[in-house]
Amino acid sequence: MNSLFKALNDETRRQIIELLKDKDMNAGEIADRFQISKPSISHHLDILKRADLITSEKKGQFIQYSLNTSILEDLLSWVLTLKK
């Protein structure tokens, strides 16, 4: 759970999640939306993958990233249990 909160604690990573909410994208497509280096985007993608917030699949020469909605559903369910 700590890696999940660490991943969500960064504005760039939250923006990446927002992008992937609309459609699957490769790293280059994601990087084109930001004013930071491609290695920095790769670092953010790695953190999101380790937190299980996104998944990746090799398609040809590119890696396609997708939002893992099941982990978000689990997080939301957990948060709702805190409300009494």
Q: What percent of the residues sit in helical stretches (DSSP H or I)?
A: 55-70%
Straight-line N-to-C gap: 21 Å
CATH class: Mainly Alpha
Largest sheet: 3 strands, antiparallel
**Helix/sheet category:** alpha+beta
Strand numbers in spatial order across the main sheet: 1-3-2
How does CATH name the architecture?
Answer: Orthogonal Bundle
Describe this structure in words.
Keywords: DNA-binding, Transcription, Transcription regulation. It contains 5 helices and 3 strands; from the N terminus they run ααβααββα. It is of the alpha+beta class. It has one domain (about 1-80): Winged helix-like DNA-binding domain superfamily/Winged helix DNA-binding domain (Arc Repressor Mutant, subunit A, Orthogonal Bundle), CATH 1.10.10.10. α1 runs antiparallel to α4.
